[in-house]
Amino acid sequence: MISANIITFNEEANIADCIASVRQVCGDIVVVDSGSQDQTTTIARELGARVVQQAYLGDGIQKNIALEHVEHDWVLSLDADERLTTEMVAAIRQLDLAATEHDAFAFRRRNMIGSRWIRVCGWYPDYCIRLYNRQHARFADVKQHASVVAANPKRINADIVHHSFENLGQLFAKPGRNFSGRAAKIMFQKGKRANAFSPFVHGLNAFVRKYIFQRGFMGGVDGLSVAISAGLNSYLKYAKLLEYQRDPKVLEAEDFNKVW
Question: pTM of whole model > 0.85?
Answer without folding.
Answer: yes
